[in-house]
Amino acid sequence: MKIKIVAFALLALFFGGCLPAANRTSAPIPTATLAPGVGGLSGQIQRAAQTWPGQPLRIYAAAYYGEPDGGGFYMLDPDRDPGAPLAADGSFTLDSLPPGSYLLVVGPSAEQGRRVVDADQQPALFLVQAGTWQELGTLALEP
Amino acid sequence: MKRVTLALPVLIVLLALALSGGSPTRAQSNPVWNSAILYFNPADTPIETQGCESPPECDDISIVYYRETGETVPSRAIPVKPFQSGVVLIGSVLYDQTFKGSAVISSTVPLAALFRQVYSSSDPYSPIVYTSLDNTMAGEGFFYLPWVQRTSGFDTEIGVQNIESVPISLKLHFYERDKKDRPGEIYTYDPPQGITVEPQRSYIFRVSAIPLPWSGSFDGSVVVEANFSGLPGSHPKIVAAAREVLVGGNKAYGFEGVGTGQTAWHMVSALCSYGPGQQTSQYSIQNTSLASTAQVQVDYYTADGTLFATYPASGTAAVSPGKALLVNGCDPTPTTQGVLTGKYLSAVVRSTNGVGLAVVGKVIGKDGLLTAFNGQLPPPASPDGKYYVALPYVEFAVREDGIRTYLSILNVGSSPANDIQLTYYGRDGSLITAVNLTGKPLPAHAKIGSDPSAARAIDPGSYGFIGAANIISDQPIVALARVQRGVSLPGGVTSLGDDYVGMHYLKNW
Questions:
Q1: Does the first or last residue of chain A, that is N or C, have fewer Cβ atoms within 10 Å of its Cβ?
Q2: Which of B12, B16, B93 is facing A11, going by the closest CB pair?
Q3: Which chain B residues contact residue A7 at CB under 8 A?
């Protein structure tokens, strides 16, 4: 069993703004093949190529931690966390996501990215379950 | 278990001052990322091997999220192997505007970490960087910020973190810098409702929002005072950092505060109209005693370690309790033939009467460069007699408008250094190149530079170098990293950047 060294690296997460987020789930795709213990997401991002013309784009899955109805944070190590290239038509497949909640970020790099938003233009949360592949359909980025 | 216990002295403290989002020029919208923490595992071997199933990735870091109730939620662990480095981007989602969560980094390794302002290449503002703080650097009841401004140009944000397990209360003491015609005034910010900070949480002060008695501007120093809630005169442990942004502009920088005053600080950069950017350094030297006057002297050394100039020219400069003295890099008087202009110097800021000091330096260039860096202390030796310094973030883009990092290493010992090994590691922990900086011995007070390009750490045709650097020396050394980028902005601004100090660690595993 690992014993953590608790380091006091504080991230003051009391930021301005109110961003209600929604947990989204979609119908599973029964034909998809997944490794044991992980889930998958697929879909298509609208207008990504127009937002960053001529640039190769990636989609990143940032794990979300926090309150179901309060607030929280999401984090991403872009070099090591799940991500995938975005096709020219905006389609993507993320096929090795550990179970949990995620925000999706799209951009030429994670730091230059924009979040996937819901119909209310608020950052959307996606719940991933082990052994389940979800087709999310067409998704929009925040302006 | 033994290894973990030995690694405890390298606990880190990092404040994320990301309240207003990224750029000072950007609209105050909720940013995608609020913080970027860059980390480096300087351990040359796995520390936590018990139960490790995938060596060498036996260690990990994770973020522990603190709910408002105090309950903790650990994030997924990020495995790290020896010499690996990386960046963790963190953003927030709020359902409730009153929500105030916080998070703490947890690690099984002696992590070197720093905070970097999130930015994008399409939004050219200064890359703010400041380092984590060792918990031995925590102040007990007080923390000192040698340079705080509220002018028409700059606004300071101050972040204070409670690292105790019980709530504390805060107040800020503002010390105006002494003027030529009158002594600076003192003001204590202690609102009637009080400022309470829960355990592990931080509180962000925006100086422009504090009702200072002076109309308009403030330039001086701040003493943060903390007490256990309801217990005046108690001394809880706190840390603090600051960042300043140019109002309506692109310049910004961050620096750490000082927990305990010291009688000598080493300053890696001491400049007077140096280089094409005509860079000049300024030191704000704060007296950390709240009762006694400090007598201050600054000695300037050439890059080969020769004493070149002193400030003041004779005697010492008096600094009143809590206040700060501003010394410009062009102020000192050369002790030998020559002029200060164009010199690439270092300095030692000394208290000659034993009263503690805290120092923050800035480098200001006519090309737009504006950086901040802390004074440094000689590090303790590791059990093997060597001195170790980690630089968790070294980036060097081939293209001229990309981020470029330049390292300066200063011998702060009393003897020449005969063996200084600087190694650049890629983000995956791979050794890219190792450089011996002591082709000839580096005298005391002498400094030497390096960067990934000069060290041939860049593959032809690649983006450049992104990773970390590790320094091992036979003499006490300190290091300073300049992170800068080339830009083309109105007003002739061609360079933006910030400095951060290398982090010492004890190799005791």
A1: N
A2: B16
A3: 11-13, 104-107, 111, 113, 132
- CA-CA distance, B321 to B370, in Å (whole number)? 28
At residue B56, what is the residue type?
A: P
In 3-state terms, what secondary structure has residue B10? helix
In the predicted model, what is the mean pLDDT of residues B186-202? 89
Residues in chain A predicted with pLDDT less than 50, given as ranges, are 1-25, 28, 30
Q: Which residue of chain A is at minimal alpha-carbon distance from B90?
A: A75
Structure tokens at B345: 């110097």
What is the C-alpha to C-alpha distance for residues B118 and B34, in angstroms, rounded to an integer?
Answer: 7
Question: CA dihedral in degrees (A120, A121, A127, A128; nearest 10)?
Answer: 140
Question: pLDDT per residue over B233-269, tens digit each?
Answer: 999 999 888 888 776 666 777 888 899 999 999 999 9
Chain B CB contacts of A14 under 8 Å are 19, 99-102, 204
> Of A44-53, A75-84, B95-104, B329-338, which has the strongest mean pLDDT?
A44-53
Question: Which residues contact residue B45 at a Cβ distance below 8 angstroms, ignoring those fewer than 6 apart?
Answer: B56, B82, B509
Q: Are B487 and B401 in contact (CB under 8 A)?
A: yes
Determine the Cα–Cα distance for residues B199 and B47; give it in Å rounded to an integer.
Answer: 28
Strands B503-505 and B387-397: antiparallel
CB contact under 8 A, A63 and B163: no
Domains in chain A: boundaries: 22-59+99-143
Q: Helix (H, G, I), strand (E, B), or coil: what is residue B286?
A: strand
In angstroms, the CA B470 to CA B421 distance is: 8
Structure ipTM:
0.83
**Count of helix runs (H) and strand runs (E) in chain B:** 1, 39
HSE (CB half, 13 Å, CA atoms) of B116?
A: 29
Could you give the residue ranges of the DSSP H alpha helices within B371-504?
A: none
Contact between B507 and B432 (Cβ < 8 Å): no
Contact B95, A18 (CB under 8 A): yes
DSSP E strand boundaries for B75-153: 78-80, 85-94, 101-107, 112-116, 129-131, 133-134, 139-140, 142-150
Predicted pLDDT of residue B95:
53
Reduced to 3 DSSP states, what percent helix, strand and coil does chain A have, rounded to the nearest 5? 5, 50, 45
Question: Picking from B110-114, B443-447, B466-470, which range would have the lowest pLDDT averaged per residue?
Answer: B110-114
Contact status, residue B268 vs residue B410, Cβ threshold 8 Å = yes
Chain A CB within 8 Å of residue B12 CB? yes
Strand A5-13, strand B12-14: pairing: parallel
What pLDDT, on the 0 to 100 scale, is given for residue B290?
A: 94
Q: How far apart are CA A126 and CA A103, in angstroms?
A: 6
Residue A121 and residue B31: Cα distance in Å, rounded?
A: 14
CA distance, residue A45 to nearest chain B CA (Å): 17
Least confident of B68-72, B152-156, B249-253: B68-72
pLDDT at B110: 80
Do residue B106 and residue A4 have CB atoms under 8 angstroms apart? yes
